[in-house]
Fold this sequence. Notes:
The structure holds 2 protein chains of 2 kinds. Chain A is mainly alpha-helical. Chain A contains 16 helices and 3 strands. In chain A, 61% of the residues lie in helices and 5% in strands. The interface between A and B is large, with 56 and 42 residues.
Amino acid sequence: MENIEQNSESGLPPSMGGWEDLAAMSLEEAKSDVVGQSEVEASPEQTQPENAEESERLSLAEIRQLHLDFISGKKEHISDEEAKLFEEDQDFYSSPEYTQYRAQQVIEFARRRPDIYMPQDEQIQRNISPYLEVIREDSETLYKLGSAIEHGADAESAIKNLMEFFASKFGVEDTPVLLLETKSDGEDCGGYNFYHNRLRCVIDKNGSVADIVETIGHEMWHAHQHRANNELYDANNRYYYTASIDYEGYRGQLVEREAFEIGDAISDLFRRKDLEEHPERIPDLEKKYHEWIDNKYFPSKTEDGIDYEYLILAHEMKPKKLSAVTRVFNGFRKRLRKEQNEQKAAS
Amino acid sequence: MNKKLLVEKYLVNEKKVTGGLLFHVVDKIEKYQDVYDEFCYWLEKRNYDKENPLIVEGYTAKQIYELNPKLDGIGVYNFLITLREKPELAKEYIKSGFKES
């Protein structure tokens, strides 16, 4: 999903009650609110404000407002002049106002964080399961529409039909506009832009149809989230982790955890159906696995372009082979871990 | 320049991080002094070439950047923290090619 900031018109961060509330809150009160959140405790530098007097060039209140403005995203860019003012005002970062503001922001964040930034599996499943069940019940249609992408001459039209399918299942009344791109770097799969209601789908020349089905399912779930009138989704989208800032944070946040989870589940459905219809696509699994083990490498795709996830599913569909391969796979993991531990011990 | 200011300016101006998320990101990057120091070094030089670079689970910042240039800057150093705290998960992400959509 693309990063979309939703700033309040007042210039205050949307999660805040207002500056007056913060000013009334002592730092001790603020800190007591985050008991147990050791990582967000204020540093010694913050707990010992040294000087709260106004700067010579701008009053502390003005600087505070300036800071508030750019923190809240009211200003998209800090000018050199503004930056210089901050640099010259050495007292700002140690002022009680700034300290309280920062503490409150952290508290606000910590309060929301468990549900948004560390969602539990149960929470994710509770949200996506009803929708996934509806898709499962209609997996024939999913497979038919997905296969049309592979076989049809007009990929764009086939993808649009798939989007309509998800829109009806996820309750998205205004199906997004499709922007189709073709690339071969495999880096980017797609995106959803709420403001323009556009869904971008990147077709990787080396990718599979199942990847496209997964991407469309993933992005259409974002479209659903934006229409769900859900406080947690809205808060997450307001303070959204982009992958470029923190990949772990990006993958772990509520809106992405759900979208990845439902996208994976949908592509699993598609792949299972595909293997049922085309058993000849099940490769010689054990041979492949042994090759990988010898090379200590588990690629997402085999050199002949076979989707790794197909292999996993194929294992599941062939219990006898699965147990044999799983034994080998686990043995490999164990050996690798042992080697890593030995390396650590040696260093 | 005040390191904290330097980091905030970078996050707000270049990475467009706003609100509580800014402090959350700052908290994370400040968590380990060695990672923080190397990140601040990168912030000033904008270059991953450094003598005796930090190595986490066999990876330097430069190697992470080469694996995924999109993580330029803060993303690289945050990923070093993920490698330190959750090595298995981090390696899964590397293996899957930093899947993103």
